[in-house]
Specification:
Blueprint: H1 5-21, H2 64-77, E1 85-90, H3 93-107, E2 112-116, H4 122-129, E3 133-137, H5 147-156, E4 163-167, H6 179-188, E5 197-201, E6 226-230, E7 242-247, H7 248-251, E8 257-258, E9 263-264, H8 275-286, H9 289-312, E10 325-329, H10 333-338, E11 342-344, E12 347-351, H11 360-381
Parallel strand pairs: 2-3, 2-4, 4-5, 5-6
Antiparallel strand pairs: 1-7, 6-7, 8-9, 10-12, 11-12
Helix pairs in contact: 2-8, 3-4
The structure holds pyridoxal-5'-phosphate (PLP).
Pyridoxal-5'-phosphate binds next to helix 3.
């Protein structure tokens, strides 16, 4: 690149800023301990995974063979035979959610999309783009969907083929919607298995639950029809990306033949990122199953450490089962801004990602929250 000195300096100062903030994030679920330097040389090529990796594309510089491996890995993880599944590496969790909703809408064009209040904000966008009727369902205090309310709303809409957007780890509190209860209740209403669609938004927890001893039901074996995970969250990636897996039979309904690249294309984008495919491939091959288990265990222990420490200081912190998201009362703006915390209503959270190898950053934040709480209490007693 032929940059002026001023522009080079600008990049240098952004570089310093990034270095300084590299491991800072404690309010967002982004892993920061990845190393993809062995892939840097591929940035010399204009790679592109346009279309379906199952097809022979005319565009030579693709990483389809790696994408196939990645999808093999995730079909295993989410308990669906590889040949019965289809999916791809997306631009992020949102695209995967959109893909799931798109499949569902093609199956049941006039049905309503049900999701809880605690659902990620992107679902509203998706429903709008796909012009789907939608219905917001109440949630319980821990962030799970209120199944009673879900069923009531399906009944009052006289919906024969509901589309349910289930949270497998909500953004704010890591709550997992009770998928077996939802299915039981649908069965009791005489809505047969082929007459509803169940999408799982597993942006963060999709890469946690497969590695814990007692996961909540969330896989294809538990009746899920599609599942979306973010690649830049638990796995970690310098570029946002994700993975979506669906049932092959549903995907084949939406195939479009594209003459000029001589490939079928079921994906949402046209040109697709082939570099992030290589990153996901490297990530899944960098750790064995038991190493992933260890990574996740460490995060879970760290989360429990934070809950205990906050509770000992009289702060009502909590977390959901199998979640690394620690919820506590929203501190003053000065604190949540300083620590870049995500806040929502009266709550804030911290997330114990794998790059928190020591308790240092977590301790720092907790101390600040404790002092802040004391000050708030003192203020309120005057
Ligand atoms: C982060 C998140 C998303 C969005 O994922 P992106 O990868 O940012 O598009 C969707 N759902 C939940 C529950 C999330 O936490």
């Amino acid at each position: 690149m032929n940059l002026s000195i001023a522009n080079k300096e600008r990049l240098n100062s952004f570089w310093s800023y990034c270095l300084q903030h590299q491991h800072f994030n404690i309010g967002y679920p982004e892993s920061a301990d990845f190393d993809y330097s062995s892939l840097y040389r591929f940035f010399n090529f204009s790679l592109n995974n346009c279309g379906d990796w199952r097809e022979l594309s005319n565009y030579a510089l693709n990483s389809f063979e790696f994408e196939e491996d990645v999808m093999h890995y995730f079909s295993n993880l989410f308990k669906i035979p590889f040949q019965d599944s289809w999916g791809y590496v997306t631009n992020g969790g949102t695209e995967g959610n959109m893909f799931g909703c798109y499949l569902a809408r093609e199956l049941f064009p006039n049905s309503t999309l049900y999701y809880s209040k605690e659902t990620h904000y992107s679902v509203t966008k998706i429903a709008k783009l796909l012009r789907m009727k939608s219905c917001i369902v109440d949630s319980l205090d821990n962030g799970e969907i209120n199944t009673d309310d879900l069923i009531l709303k399906i009944i009052s809409n006289k919906d024969k083929q509901p589309i349910i957007f289930a949270n497998v780890g909500t953004t704010m509190s890591g709550a997992v919607d009770n998928i077996s209860d939802i299915q039981l209740r649908l069965r009791q209403m005489n809505i047969k298995r082929h007459n509803y669609y169940l999408h799982a938004d597993a942006a963060l927890s999709g890469m946690i639950l497969p590695f814990v001893d007692t996961p909540q039901p969330f896989t294809f074996a538990d009746g899920i029809d599609s599942i979306s995970v973010s690649g830049h969250k638990m796995i970690g990636s310098p570029i946002p990306c994700g993975i979506v897996v669906a049932r092959c039979e549903n995907v084949d309904r939406i195939s479009v033949d594209v003459d000029y690249i001589s490939a079928r294309d079921q994906t949402i984008s046209g040109s697709r990122n082939a570099h992030s495919v290589l990153m996901m491939w490297c990530a899944i091959h960098s750790y064995s199953h038991s190493e992933w288990q260890q990574r996740i265990q460490t995060c879970l222990k760290m989360a429990q450490y934070a809950v205990d420490k906050l509770q000992r200081a009289g702060i009502s912190a909590w977390r959901n089962p199998n979640s690394i998201t620690v919820v506590f009362p929203r501190p003053s703006e000065e604190v949540w801004r300083r620590y870049h915390l995500a806040v929502s209503g009266s709550l804030a959270h911290l997330i114990t990602m794998p790059h928190h190898k020591t308790t240092q950053k977590i301790d720092e934040l907790i101390e600040a929250v404790i002092i802040d709480q004391k000050e708030l209490l003192e203020l309120s007693t005057y």
